[in-house]
Amino acid sequence: MGYQLTRRAAAACAMALGLSAPAPASAGHSIFHVFTPAIEAGAWGVEALSAFNTGLPSAGEHTPLQAAHELAIHTGVNEYWMAKLALGIEKPAGDSYQLNSIALENVFRVSSPPHGPFDAAWFTALSAGIDADATHAVEFGPVLTFDSGPFALVINPFLEKTFGDNREPGIALTYGWRATYRISDLFSIGAEGYGAVEDLGNTPPARDQIHRVGPVLYLGHVHGATNGIHGAGHAGHGEGHRYAKEHGHASAPGHLPEWHGEIGVLFGLTNATDDAAIKFNFGADF
Description:
The protein has two helices and twelve strands, in the order αββββββββββαββ. It has helices at 2-16, 239-246, and strands at residues 44-54, 65-78, 81-92, 98-108, 118-129, 136-148, 151-163, 172-184, 187-197, 210-220, 258-268, 276-285. It has a twelve-stranded antiparallel β-barrel with strand order 1-2-3-4-5-6-7-8-9-10-11-12. The protein has one domain (2-285): monomeric porin ompg (Porin, Beta Barrel). 8% of the residues lie in helices and 50% in strands. Strand 8 and strand 9 form a beta hairpin.
């Protein structure tokens, strides 16, 4: 009883913040990752993102996922455009692993990075379902950041529309947010939250929405954090590589890539959300 009240109270708090999860509109996030405005022209990076879910909700219209993975490569096409190609792999409950989707994700800047703590960009993604049950989707929305000293906040409030044979009705509101505090150049602590509200024209009750939040540890530079010039601990999309070169931490050609890792546990806040999801995200910027 107390646990159910706690879950409901936490869900109400999440919705009060106006934040809600990026991924299939039918099931919230499958992997857990935020985008930021940090872009370096000519930089390349690779990522392996993984999530393992426990305490799966009962199967309803959609089969819950036991695990999901994403393999991706991204580059700064120029100082205003980051492009990422991602391959999605999922394991539905009681089934085997299957290649699920391929996506082209983009972050666009409209101006050079500001000198103040606030920054913004625009996110647009197009994903194509590979598995017979997967949907196609377009997702878009602002990327907002606040970065001051060791503290950084990133918010991704996106809209998603599915299309094709297995499309969902209406437009979904999805969100992800990340708050981090830098302990050292190569270690930060923080919290993340993700969620989804399907079909904004016919919003489901809170118990049927996807909301989760939990602590995360960040090893290496914090991937994708804005204002990388403030410190290597909050850099990404190539910004950590640039900071290292400018401050003498990287040699000329042949230096090792800037790596990053994220390990966390995200707890479900509603009956429709998994009890817990363990995230392992690792990557390197060149």
